[in-house]
Design brief:
By secondary structure, this protein is an alpha+beta fold. It has a 3-stranded antiparallel beta sheet with strand order 1-2-3, with helices on one face. The radius of gyration is 18 Å and the shape is elongated. The termini are far apart.
């Protein structure tokens, strides 16, 4: 008899691998010393693996926004307000923590 063939349908939409920029609105965060400050961010990223991105994300801008918001809160909560304002290490840490997750989605975080 005839075997059943399973055919995987792939989304045929085009995916840009050029650098993209997302602007995130201000959010209130609380630092380790209890200060409430408002932070906003601009995220530059590039899709490095379109296939991985297509299979592991549904709404990439929303996913990156939520990831950035949670990581900003986590980093801010671990630092005092002076450290957060003066430290470029905080931004580097934020970029590193985001990269760990984004890499699994086929994304390279370039700048925050």
């Amino acid at each position: 008899g005839r075997g059943v063939q399973l055919i995987e349908r792939v989304n045929q939409s085009r995916v840009s691998t050029q650098r993209e920029v997302l602007d995130f609105p201000k959010q209130t965060v609380i630092t380790r010393d209890g200060a409430r400050i408002q932070l906003d961010a601009i995220l530059q990223f590039r899709i490095t693996s379109p296939k991985t991105t297509m299979y592991s994300t549904i709404n990439l801008p929303l996913m990156l926004s939520k990831l950035l918001q949670s990581q900003v809160r986590n980093v801010a909560a671990s630092l005092e307000v002076d450290q957060l304002i003066e430290s470029s290490a905080a931004v580097a840490r934020l970029r590193g923590e985001m990269s760990v997750v984004a890499t699994k989605w086929g994304i390279e975080i370039q700048e925050i």
